[in-house]
Design goal:
Mean pLDDT: 96
Strand order of the largest sheet: 3-7-8-14-11-10-9
Bound molecules: '5'-O-(N-(L-alanyl)-sulfamoyl)adenosine
Largest sheet: 7 strands, mixed
Distance between the termini: 37 Å
Number of strands: 17
CATH class of the largest domain: Alpha Beta
CATH architecture of the largest domain: 2-Layer Sandwich
Strand content: 25-35%
Structural class: alpha+beta
Shape: elongated
CATH topology of the largest domain: BirA Bifunctional Protein, domain 2
CATH superfamily of the largest domain: Bira Bifunctional Protein, Domain 2
Radius of gyration: 24 Å
Number of domains: 2
């Protein structure tokens, strides 16, 4: 791949993944083929998280008073926040932020929900869109202003040890996730200057993309008691003492899909890991006037058999040259292409 950036831009369009022509910079449309890759990728991480975490859904708007409470955090995001200032014609009494991430939406509610040690740990996650007014050059999926696929998990614990264990759990979950996607990664502790705003420490997953640049595809933060202090998240322990909770959070984004595309793709197009490919087997009938019905019937039969075995299968019965179909599915990176024509039937395959 000579020019990765150009290749990446073209493949998103040609393989029907996203369309970046939407008239707001950094915001794009998920097209049907891309949406399915996204869906299957999210299903993997959901399944991994659901073993020990619960999915929730918080509002997208955060009151300015809440966003501004945690000084270090707000400093880290102040240049990136989009604001809603009006309701119709009227100025709002308090401006509302489009969440750049959801700590300040979620933690005031944790303060209400957590009362005693029996309410702990809390391990919630959500998959939502978040907004960041990125000032660096935006790039589809990699640096967007609407992050459409923001998986963020937020946990609260009674002890520091438990929060450190949670960090290890997240690392194990992300490892399994990226292993499933066949993506090689580096795990590192971020230096002080590169920590998440408000975190005690940050662990990050990086992928080396074909252009030689690293892409941070996931982060796991130990928040210590910083947010607990700010949002007054306390619990009564077994001895009746009131204590602050320890918190962690972890996130991945659209960048995961960018890495799936970038790491596996080649000059001929996408190459999708079977687990996230919209179709795992694509059947390409070779049709002539004579014997057309028989070939299509056999394709249906094979499709049914493969589906019964749990595979996602499609038949490309478009009325175009088989060579064109073959090239299309090569471009779309379907893992297995199965061609079937009258001669195969004659040979009783
Ligand atoms: N609340 C925590 C989890 C958080 O917000 N962490 S984070 O700021 O590091 O973001 C999580 C992940 O989202 C990052 O590791 C990165 O992979 C991804 N991300 C951040 N900004 C992005 C952007 N503008 N476009 C695409 N992905 C982005």
């Amino acid at each position: 791949m000579e020019n990765f950036d150009e290749w990446f831009h073209d493949i998103l369009e040609n393989a029907n993944i996203t369309d970046s022509r939407y008239p707001i910079k950094g915001m794009a449309i998920w097209m049907p083929y891309g949406f399915q890759i996204r869906k299957h990728s999210m299903n993997i991480i959901k399944k991994l998280l659901d073993k020990d975490h619960e999915e929730v859904l918080f509002p997208m708007l955060v009151p300015e008073t809440e966003l501004a409470k945690e000084g270090i955090h707000v400093k880290g995001f102040e240049d990136e926040v989009y604001w809603v200032t009006k309701g119709g014609q009227k100025d709002l009494n308090e401006q509302l932020a489009l969440r750049p991430t959801s700590e300040t939406a979620i933690y005031p509610m944790y303060a209400l929900w957590i009362r005693t040690h029996m309410d702990l740990p809390i391990k919630y996650y959500q998959i939502v869109n978040t907004f960041r007014y990125e000032t660096k050059h935006t790039r589809p999926l990699i640096r967007v202003r609407e992050i459409t696929t923001f998986k963020e998990a937020h946990t609260a614990h009674a002890t520091k040890e438990e929060s450190d264990e949670q960090i290890q759990d997240f690392i194990a979950i992300y490892k399994e996730f990226f292993d499933d996607l066949g993506i090689p990664y580096l795990i590192s502790k971020r230096p002080e200057w590169d920590k998440f705003p408000g975190a005690d420490y940050t662990m990050a997953f990086d992928v080396i993309m074909p252009n030689g640049k690293t892409l941070q595809v996931g982060t796991i933060h130990n928040l210590g008691q910083t947010f607990a202090k700010t949002f007054d998240i306390t619990f009564e322990d077994k001895d009746g003492e009131h204590k602050l909770v320890y918190q962690t959070c972890a996130g991945v984004s659209d960048r995961v899909i960018a890495s799936v595309i970038g790491i596996h793709g080649d000059e001929t197009g996408l190459r999708l890991p079977p687990k996230v490919s919209p179709n795992q087997v694509t059947i390409i009938p070779i049709l002539f006037k004579k014997g057309k019905e028989e070939v299509l019937a056999k394709c249906d039969e094979i499709k049914a058999q493969l589906e019964a075995a749990g595979l996602r299968v499609n038949i490309d019965d478009r009325d175009i040259r088989p060579g064109k179909k073959f090239n299309d599915w090569e471009l779309k990176g379907t893992p297995v292409k199965l061609e079937l024509g009258p001669r195969d039937l004659e040979n009783n395959i």
